[in-house]
Design brief:
This protein is mainly alpha-helical and 342 residues long. The chain is 52% helix and 0% strand. The chain has a domain of 108 residues. GO terms for molecular function: protein-containing complex binding.
Length: 342
């Protein structure tokens, strides 16, 4: 046997002795550690599966509550959600509290809705994204039922450039400022939403619409009374033409007033407008008729002059029926115009 072979054998025996010595000291603990590791792994896997099963069951209950709310049964939905808050698993208890806020909003109870959202936002055990979303929901409700300070108190911290919910937070603050009459602040926030390419299409479209409303000068208050409609412009009623002055006839030799038809001036009727029915204006009489009180359809026809004119041929008397002809007035008596008094 060479020296090298002897040395190698001695080294192997020494290593075996050291391994046996270490195993005798730590072998038992090593086995215990391996067993513990296996048991812990199995327990973790089993617990995870149990939590998943419980979360699935809570999800099913949550969907049932949503169906009740959609079916118009808010009280039953709230009862189911409250039961889920008490013994639910996963994030469903927090989601149930937020859903209760949504149901209260649909019922027209903004104070109860804000209280539900604030409870989630103040819960340190809830996930931070859910807490932030609850604060934004409360701010949207307070846009209509609260003040601009209430809105800022909840979402002012979320309006920074690095916040994932900065767009809805800015929109809530802008709407509250617009309702409060702070047009400058509202315009700046809406302009940021329009200029930021990261804003969603819905928020960007609403912001653009609000910019148009502000530019048009629409009233900020939602409950402001609408402007009174302008009164219809009344067409001026043309005044009736003044009656021609009466012309006194010269006294007759026997003291009676004789009215000569030829001496009464007659007014030329105005030419009617094209397409319009001609209107006849009757002078005012002692009976209270005529003038502006007489409608065109009620006005009497103008009195025609029956006195013969020298240069006009007279119609033969035979053409007039005897029953309709009137006897000539005796001399010295006034001649009444034909047609009667209207």
């Amino acid at each position: 046997m060479s020296d090298d072979s002897f040395i190698r054998e001695v080294n192997e025996e020494l290593r075996q002795d050291k391994v046996q010595e270490a195993w005798s000291k730590f072998g038992r603990w090593l086995l215990i550690g391996v067993v513990i590791l296996l048991v812990a792994t199995a327990a973790y896997v089993g617990w995870d599966r149990y939590q998943a099963a419980q979360a699935d069951a809570s999800g099913d209950r949550y969907l049932v509550a949503l169906d009740l709310a959609a079916a118009g049964q808010p009280d039953e939905a709230v009862a189911a959600l409250e039961a889920l808050i008490a013994d639910g698993h996963g994030a469903y208890p927090d989601l149930a509290r937020m859903r209760i806020g949504s149901v209260r909003v649909a019922q027209g109870q903004p104070q109860e809705a804000v209280a539900a959202f604030d409870a989630v936002a103040a819960d340190s055990g809830a996930p931070q994204p859910i807490r932030d979303m609850a604060a934004v929901r409360a701010a949207y409700v307070l846009v209509d039922s609260g003040t601009v300070d209430d809105v800022r108190e909840r979402v002012e911290r979320l309006t920074g450039d690095s916040e994932p919910l900065r767009f809805p937070a800015r929109e809530a603050v802008a709407l509250a400022a617009w309702k409060a009459g702070d047009i400058e602040t509202a315009f700046g926030l809406f302009q940021q939403l329009v200029d930021d390419a990261g804003a969603s299409n819905g928020i960007s479209a609403r912001a653009r619409l609000m910019l148009d409303v502000i530019a048009a000068g629409a009233p900020a208050a939602e409950g402001a009374a609408p402007a009174a409609p302008q009164a219809a412009t009344e067409q001026p009623v043309p005044a009736a033409p003044a009656p021609a002055p009466a012309v006194e006839a010269p006294a007759s030799p026997d003291g009676g007033a004789v009215v000569a038809p030829e001496s009464v001036p007659t007014a030329e009727p105005a030419a009617p407008a094209s397409g319009a029915a001609p209107s006849i204006t009757m002078p005012t009489t002692d009976l209270g008729l005529g003038g502006a009180d007489v409608l065109p359809s009620e006005a009497a026809p103008a009195v025609e002059d029956t006195a013969p004119v020298a240069d006009q041929p007279q119609e033969p008397a035979s053409d007039i029926p005897p029953a309709l002809s009137e006897p000539a007035a005796p001399a010295g008596e006034p001649v009444a115009p034909q047609g009667g008094v209207n």
